[in-house]
Specification:
Blueprint: H1 2-5, E1 15-17, H2 26-32, E2 36-38, H3 58-65, H4 80-93, E3 97-101, H5 104-113, E4 121-125, H6 130-142, E5 146-150, H7 155-161, E6 168-172, H8 184-193, E7 197-201, H9 206-209, E8 219-223, H10 225-229, E9 237-241, H11 243-257, H12 263-295, E10 300-304, H13 314-320, E11 327-332, H14 339-349, E12 354-355, E13 365-367, H15 379-384, E14 391-395, H16 401-412
Parallel strand pairs: 4-5, 4-6, 6-7, 7-8, 12-13
Antiparallel strand pairs: 1-2, 3-9, 8-9, 10-11, 11-14, 13-14
Helix pairs in contact: 2-4, 2-12, 4-12, 14-16
This protein binds pyridoxal-5'-phosphate (PLP).
Length: 415
């Protein structure tokens, strides 16, 4: 190691690009895509834990700020480790461009704010992640942006809302926590006719199981905190779409408002992407087994998982998604009793599965949406979304599936 460090230091970070050409499969892209090696020839992607960069001459700084040379200026703008993550995500999504952010919510907020102004309209599906509901329902109207929620599964509602011009359509499919599926091609066609850009929150599906851009959407957003890290270590977000938008208004918004992803978290997420397909395989086989187990359980009233024949949009899910994902929600059958007490009893009896509001993690995690993630919603709205007191959301992890079934068995037996 010391031998390498005796080399004279270079004024500019010595990065050579090894961008992938052509036809790599996803597994290869996720291990190697976007890698830039420094002059030290490191195997794993280097962690550039620095805020700034130096210039050999004042003329180089001037040229950099004029955008005449392609170099790193400041980590709020771009950083080599973050750039490697963005390129890897871009290749995976098949998008023209990608930017990352410090969290999924920063990605969602920036994706909308970079393209709306007072007087614009935003139309969104009602079944949204809680914080997104706040942004669309409470924050945007305060800035003079008109917003409207629709039942995402009902094309007639979309059609009515999009009979007037709109700037942005925002939707999440499958939705949290009831795993509703929204018809992305049909909604995109209606949105485009109304002049709107379609943003899809693709967290539940992951970039491997659903490709919203191929389905007609314009922009995809991620909480990389979920499956992309998938090991409960860090927050992160991503925004992907056409370069006209990403390298234009979005880049301007991100650079000057500063929700930049830390290089350390970018590095962690790069490592997460390397194992994403492997982890998803196990997530999927476990989730399928748990969904079937729950469907057969006498104390379970209803199971929500997009692959089940009992799912009302199973056919649409099959058209849009490669597989159903790693979350299964279910309602317990509490007879005449107190549904919340019965659900709490199941959560409290679990010994392996942890109570947590996160998802897409290697650890199986369980949530009671009505009292946590969706607690802020008015009761009628929760009812409209099917979030009853008996509903439990389970993010299925990577543990041995027999152990998980045994854990659920003993927890449900007390209900
Ligand atoms: C978690 C999540 C977010 C927000 O992401 P953070 O990284 O927690 O900020 C947005 N959308 C969905 C669907 C999520 O599950």
């Amino acid at each position: 190691m010391t031998e390498l460090l005796t080399e004279p230091p270079l004024a500019v970070p010595p990065i050579t690009s090894a961008l992938p050409e052509g036809e790599w499969h996803e597994e290869t892209l996720l291990v190697r895509g976007g890698t830039m090696r420094s002059a030290f020839g490191e195997t794993s992607e280097a962690l550039f834990l620095n805020s700034g960069f130096v210039y050999p001459r004042a003329e180089d700084a001037e040229a950099a700020f004029k955008g005449e040379n392609d170099r790193f200026i400041y980590s709020r703008y771009a950083n080599p480790t973050v750039a490697m993550l963005e390129e890897r995500l871009r290749l995976l999504e098949g998008a023209e461009a990608c930017r990352t952010t410090a969290s999924g919510m920063a990605a969602v907020f920036a994706s909308i704010m970079a393209q709306v102004k007072a007087g614009d309209r935003v139309v969104a599906s009602r079944a949204l992640f809680g914080s997104i509901h706040y942004i669309v329902g409470e924050l945007l109207p305060g800035y003079g942006i008109e917003t409207e929620f629709v039942d995402g599964t009902d094309l007639a509602s979309w059609e009515a809302a999009l009979s007037r011009p709109a700037a942005v359509v925002f939707l999440e499919t499958p939705s949290n926590p009831t795993l509703e599926i929204i018809d992305v091609p049909a909604v995109s066609a209606l949105a485009h006719a109304a002049g709107a850009q379609v943003i899809v929150d693709n967290v539940f599906a992951t970039p491997i199981l659903q490709k919203p851009l191929e389905l007609g959407a314009d922009i995809v957003v991620y909480s990389a905190t979920k499956h992309i890290d998938g090991q409960g270590r860090c927050l992160g977000g991503g925004i992907l779409g056409r370069s006209e938008y990403i390298d234009g208004p979005l880049q301007m918004f991100l650079r000057h408002t500063g929700p930049a992803l830390s290089p350390f978290n970018a590095w962690t997420l790069l490592k997460g992407l390397e194992t994403l397909p492997l982890r998803l395989d196990r997530h999927l086989s476990n989730t399928r087994a748990i969904a079937r187990y729950l469907e057969d359980h006498p104390l379970v009233k209803r199971v929500l998982f997009p692959e089940l024949l009992s799912h009302p949009q199973q056919e649409l899910a099959r058209q849009q998604m490669r597989a159903g994902g790693s979350v299964v929600s279910f309602e317990i059958n509490n007879g005449q009793g107190d549904a919340k007490a019965a659900a709490f009893q199941v959560l409290n009896r679990l010994k392996i599965v942890d109570i947590s509001n996160n998802l897409g993690d290697s650890k199986s995690l369980v949530t009671h949406p009505a009292t946590t993630t969706h607690q802020r919603l008015p009761v009628e709205e929760r009812a409209q979304l099917g979030i009853t007191d008996a509903l439990i959301r389970l993010s299925v992890g990577l543990e041995n599936v027999e152990d998980l079934k045994a854990d659920l068995d003993q927890a449900l037996s007390g209900a």
